[in-house]
């Protein structure tokens, strides 16, 4: 394909449009391996930087994914309801299985950030729980949860293995929960995220932060859900 260098449309965007058309028309089906960036650069007579930017945007949009050492492939991005991911309560019944694997459970001193969230003093003790959220036995997200120890004395990790923290709050501690505030951001993968989610160190990851509040307005749980954004298209459904 010859690009039109006289157009106001940037070259990388012209390349992206071409690749996108191949995918959306299903000329390149799911699992199709793209030519290498070097091959594409030669095909379009552009720099590898131009190709990298076009491919990167399609990866972020969920049409392509990169597999280290193997290449770049076409995928079908799965849709998931974001509200179900961050919801405390299961909508499918309280006996529903919620597969998690606990990686660590310990008491530690609250950092300034954590202390501010819970309105406690810096260095006050909090529980830090690191779990992997599983789906069909595959890691879906890395979950970091913080809970003030004074609200949950003698907390035992066995009580929430393969369960939602919501059930622990309600059933064992009779907490009266009101709502959860949710924030969205991005983070670069560190070694633990890279190992668990099978991405390179430094890969951009999607982060959801959840603050769980009781009816008296106190935050009793703070969690971060770290996940790959490349193979899932998240949505929020709003009734009108």
Element layout with pairings:
Blueprint lengths: L10 H14 L12 H8 L3 H13 L3 E4 L3 E4 L3 E4 H5 L13 E10 L2 H7 L6 E11 L2 E11 L16 H8 L4 E12 L2 H7 L6 E11 L4 E9 L4 E4 L5
Parallel strand pairs: 3-10
Antiparallel strand pairs: 1-2, 4-5, 5-6, 6-9, 7-8, 8-9
Helix pairs in contact: 1-3, 2-3
Describe this structure in words.
The structure is a single chain. With 240 residues, the protein is of the alpha+beta class. The chain has helices at 11-24, 37-44, 48-60, 82-86, 112-118, 165-172, 191-197; strands at 64-67, 71-74, 78-81, 100-109, 125-135, 138-148, 177-188, 204-214, 219-227, 232-235. It has 2 domains: 11-76, Orthogonal Bundle (Arc Repressor Mutant, subunit A), CATH 1.10.10.10; 79-235, Chorismate lyase-like (Chorismate lyase, 3-Layer(aba) Sandwich). The mean pLDDT is 85.
Characteristics of this structure?
about 240 residues; alpha+beta; Arc Repressor Mutant, subunit A; Chorismate lyase; 2 domains; 7 helices
Number of self-contained structural domains: 2
CATH class of the largest domain: Alpha Beta
Using the coordinates shown, work out and report the CATH topology of the largest domain: Chorismate lyase
Task: Please give the order of strands in the largest beta sheet.
Answer: 4-5-6-9-8-7
Quaternary form: single chain
What proportion strand? Answer: 25-35%
Low-confidence sequence ranges: none
* CATH architectural grouping of the largest domain: 3-Layer(aba) Sandwich
Strand-pairing-aware structural class: alpha+beta
Report the order of strands and helices: HHHEEEHEHEEHEHEEE
What percentage of residues falls in helices of 4 or more residues? Answer: 25-40%
Shape: elongated
pLDDT averaged residue by residue = 85
Relevant CATH superfamily of the largest domain: Chorismate lyase-like
Distance between the termini: 46 Å
* Quantity of strands, as a count: 10
**H/I helix tally:** 7
Alpha-carbon Rg, integer: 22 Å
Tell me about the biggest sheet?
Answer: 6 strands, antiparallel
């Amino acid at each position: 394909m010859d690009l039109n260098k006289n157009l106001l449309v940037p070259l990388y965007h012209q390349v992206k449009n071409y690749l996108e058309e191949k995918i959306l028309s299903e000329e390149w089906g799911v699992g199709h391996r793209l030519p290498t960036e070097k091959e594409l650069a030669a095909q379009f007579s552009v720099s590898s930087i131009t190709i990298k930017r076009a491919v990167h945007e399609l990866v972020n949009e969920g049409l392509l994914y990169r597999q280290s050492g193997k290449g770049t492939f076409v995928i079908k991005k799965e849709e998931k309801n974001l509200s179900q991911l961050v919801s405390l309560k299961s909508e499918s019944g309280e006996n529903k299985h919620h597969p998690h694997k606990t990686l660590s459970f310990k008491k530690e001193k609250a950092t300034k950030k954590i202390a501010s969230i819970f309105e406690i003093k810096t260095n006050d003790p909090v529980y830090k729980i690191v779990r992997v959220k599983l789906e069909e036995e595959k890691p879906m997200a890395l979950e970091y949860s913080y809970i003030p120890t004074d609200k949950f004395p003698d907390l035992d990790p066995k009580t929430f293995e393969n369960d939602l923290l919501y059930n622990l709050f309600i059933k064992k501690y009779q907490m009266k929960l009101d709502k959860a505030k949710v924030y969205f951001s991005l983070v670069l993968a560190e070694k633990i995220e890279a190992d668990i989610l099978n991405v390179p160190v430094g890969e951009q990851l999607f982060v959801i932060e959840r603050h769980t509040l009781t009816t008296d307005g106190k935050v009793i749980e703070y969690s971060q859900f770290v996940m790959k954004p490349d193979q899932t298209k998240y949505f929020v459904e709003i009734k009108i």
